[in-house]
Amino acid sequence: MMKKTIIKMLMAVALVGTVASCSDDDNTTPRVNIEESTVTVDSKQPGKVVFHWTTPENADFYYIKVEYDDPVKGHRVLNASTYADSIMIDGLYAKYGELAYSFTAVSEDGGEKALFTKTAKAGYVPADIKDYKVGPISLTAAQLWTDDQESSEGPIAALVDGNNGTYFHMSWSAPSAWPHYIRVDLGKKVKGISFWYKGRNNGNNDNPKKMTILASNNVGDNPDAAGAWEIGKLGSNVLPSGRAPEYTSPGLFSETEFQYLWLQIEEAYSGNNWIAMAELTVKEMTRSIYDPENEPIK
To answer: What's the distance, CA 151 to chain centroid?
Structure first.
């Protein structure tokens, strides 16, 4: 009796093993899958790779599995349903270079069909730049200079007298060709500034239409003589026209510290060879830059 019982138990164990083995082998393998020839890649979006494909009619896969190795996060797996025609992989950087993405079709019961591998490089992630105001720079008339002062009116000192009713005027009685300059001694060395001005309150439209902003650490009668370098350009797309307009520049920065700011005026809205301004102020600026594409991969 004991012998028969042992034989029956062994037969039962063998049968279970056989059933389990058959269950693993009988998972459905998807047969109607996306074609590699229809797959395209979009690598223009910052930090992303997007694959697009044509979804086949009567597809019998449950989802598409995409696997890749992230240089920082390790092995990653994403899924796209049978109804999808694309998949987006984000959290990447262009500095990772070409990564391999393997596509596998998976059936509802877990059967798999390896399809193909695509390589792609993510779009470049731009630096995150933030500008901050440090504070205003106090200016006196002694810190201002121009190459083109009108002799009969509008002294340059009017730019910093706190009175919008007074004004500085470049020479209209003996005009000369552009460019002309307003030089500002900032009184200290900085790496960044923003300036604000208010135009004269009259109908002549003697407002700057085009300017180049330069910086130097020497004086000189012109930027070249002072060894100045460019830190910005401003044109009619941002500079205002009309009666008493106001303008605030963006932060203008230099890798090298500078003490002198040059407003090189190259054209006026009036069409004449001069400009007039009521007030001018300058603020010191600082800038923080986080550039992930140039950070080492850890």
So the answer is: 47
Give the separation between CA 225 and CA 217, rounded to whole angstroms: 11
How far from chain centre, in Å, is Cα 227? 31
Q: Nearest-CA neighbor of 76 among 86, 88, 85?
A: 88
Residue 233 near residue 211, CB atoms below 8 Å:
yes
d(CA 48, CA 41): 10
With beta carbons less than 8 A apart as the criterion, state whether 208 and 253 touch: no
154 to 39, 164, 167, 267: CA distances (angstroms): 68, 12, 5, 19
Tell me how far apart the alpha carbons of residues 208 and 245 are, in angstroms, rounded to a whole number: 10
Q: So what's the pLDDT on residue 26?
A: 77
Q: How far apart are CA 86 and CA 261, in angstroms?
A: 52
Q: Which two tokens stand for residue 165?
A: 């009713």
* β-pair type (144-146, 229-234): unpaired
Average pLDDT value for residue range 205-229? 97
Domains, the chain, ordered by start: 27-120 (2.60.40.10), 131-290 (2.60.120.260)
pLDDT interval class at 287 (50, 70, 90) = very high
Q: Tokens at residue 133, please?
A: 């105001």
pTM above 0.90, yes or no: no
- The identity of residue 9, as a single letter, is M
Structure tokens at 293: 């594409």
Residue range 19-40: mean pLDDT, rounded: 78
The values of phi and psi at residue 153, to 5°, are: -165, 170
Q: Are 177 and 273 in contact (CB under 8 A)?
A: yes
Residue 95's CB is within 10 A of a number of other CB atoms, namely 16
pLDDT at 126: 97
105-130 per-position pLDDT tens digit = 999 999 999 999 999 999 999 999 99
Say which amino acid occupies 123: G
